[in-house]
Amino acid sequence: NTIHATPTTLGANAMATDSSDVRDGLIQQLETDRLLGARAVPIVPSAGAAKALTKLNTEQVIDCTKCSLCKTRTQTVFGVGNPAARLVFVGEAPGFEEDRQGIPFIGRAGDLLTKMIIAMGLKRDDVYICNVLKCRPPDNRDPSPEEITECSPYLFEQLATISPQVIVALGAPASKTLLNTDETIGHLRGKFHDFRPTGASLEDAPIPLMPTYHPAYLLRSPNQKPKTWSDLQMVMAHLGLKPPAR
Which of 107, 112, 118, 236 has CA 20 to 30 A from 226's CA? Predict the structure, then answer.
């Protein structure tokens, strides 16, 4: 049978094509502007990445029972932010408030992270924030090796989906997990390391990863803040960011 397109259908298809072309052109122009150092250029969310992250969360993470933390959590804490983020921050695990509200990095450590992001010339909505573990360990203890083994594939899939230009690993557990190393955070920080998302080949360019101190640690050891700011300044230089004018 022959299917005849009506003028209305043809018009709708043409409008959809035009709209898609305009959107693709806008995204390309925005990215060009950003690479040339333009400031305050909004990040255009990726519908595909957002859908993939939502699917990962709703179909795998929310009801995960891979480790014993499922018995003590209030809820899982997946991640928040822009699915098209150029910069992703990765911590170790949710704390008390994160477990209660389902949002990573809130409370005092979260407030400090927000200040760090703003000092870089960004907003929390510009970046993506998540943890290695999606459930809170009891009493905020460090994640166990078994918990990291079971939960880290979710993180690797998040990073592969977002495909950021830079990753900042906050603290030793996140840095060691992402870099598959036992070296201390004091030795790892201060320089970029190569990170390849799950499924990436050696021919694919790695994502630069900057380990630095966790905001919760900085609250206990404020004398380490200058070192962290030095790490973040290297990230800013890599991304072409400038701190906001005062």
Answer: 107
